[in-house]
Write a structure and sequence with these properties.
heterodimer; A: 162 residues; mainly alpha; 9 helices; elongated; B: 166 residues; 7 helices
Chain lengths: 162, 166
């Protein structure tokens, strides 16, 4: 089943186009993937740190204005990341580090949906010096831990090639 | 120069980094720390640049100073992991012009971050008001320098001329 998916991905037009770009498409996509990572840490990561109690004096609602840039980084990384998987499917689908990365992304995704559907509206109303309620701190901690896990597992992919 | 590269590459620390002294996880773990440090150092720098450029105007600029220790710890992590990687593969890095471009970009970007930290993040006049054009220009240049450093760093894996001298 996984082999069928992998073979199919590698037979697609997109896969051939990305790989046959030769020298530059892959390294430049990797560079963009790293820049997207920095945008995510610099926005989502900092909001997480604020919710955990760092940088009092900044309200979550004010810092949250940076989140669209994190979303931009996320989209950039979904696009470049998908190109890697489509371009060289075998190297990812059977790779344990990649599987851990997807697991962390899944948990981060559930966590962020849960945060925005439960606590976000009240969190936005809190002042610059307010301490966050415990559930918010827990969600921020889960988010930060997931993103750190995603970076670690992502960087390890190359060492766990099947 | 080659004699120096050979001496470094034969040293126990270099062998340990390359995983040639039995434990193969040293290199991957050092690389992981280098990526994490990059995320937090460049992340904090980009957030400051973004605020200087007028994004998130409700954030009092001087309060972003609280994130500077995060950037400093990330810088220390990356200086240590970077030096270890250099000790592992001195020939590979030091014979590649791209490596010097990366270092130059980082040096200039750090110089800018230090100046922002000392001058801009301590000036409460900037907390709510608009920033002077000269400072905004520096934020744009700094963002470009960090992006260039990342691109140059990634290209090191593709542009080297020699891997080892031994």
């Amino acid at each position: 089943m996984l082999e069928t998916i992998s073979d199919w991905l590698q037979s697609t037009w997109l896969s051939h186009a990305f790989i046959s770009q030769g020298l530059w498409a892959w390294p430049m996509s990797e560079s963009l993937h790293f820049i997207g990572l920095c945008l995510l840490v610099g926005s989502v990561g900092l909001v997480d740190l604020r919710m955990l109690g760092m940088a009092k004096g900044i309200s979550v609602s004010a810092l949250h204005k940076l989140i669209p840039f994190g979303v931009a980084g996320y989209l950039l990384n979904v696009i470049t990341g998908s190109l890697f998987v489509v371009g060289d499917a075998d190297q990812y689908i059977f790779n344990d580090a990649f599987r851990f990365k997807m697991l962390f992304m899944f948990i981060a995704g559930i966590n962020v949906l849960f945060f925005y559907s439960t606590a976000f509206q009240q969190t936005k109303l809190l002042g610059p010096n307010d301490e966050m309620p415990l559930p918010v701190k827990i969600m921020a901690g889960v988010s930060l831990a997931c993103w750190i896990g995603i970076i670690c597992a992502g960087r390890l992919i190359t060492f766990y090639r099947p | 120069m080659e004699a120096l590269f050979i001496w470094i590459e034969n040293s126990p620390l270099s062998l340990w980094v390359r995983g040639e002294s039995g434990w193969h996880m040293a290199f991957p773990i050092i690389i992981v720390f280098h990526a994490l440090g990059m995320g937090f150092l460049v992340g904090v720098a980009l957030a400051i640049n973004g605020r200087v450029l007028g994004l998130a105007p409700g954030v009092p600029l001087t309060r972003l100073h609280a994130f500077i220790p995060v950037a400093v710890i990330a810088l220390i992590v990356n200086a240590i992991s970077g030096v270890l990687l250099l000790i592992g593969y001195p020939t590979k890095a030091l014979t590649n012009p791209v490596f010097y471009i990366k270092l130059l970009c980082i040096a200039l970007a750090l110089w800018n971050l230090r100046w922002f930290t000392k001058t801009v993040l301590t000036n409460t006049a900037y907390d709510s008001g608009n920033m002077p054009l000269s400072i905004k220009r520096l934020a744009v240049i700094s963002t470009g320098l960090w992006a260039s450093a990342i691109i140059a760093g990634r290209l090191l894996a593709y542009t080297y001329n020699h891997i080892m001298s031994i």
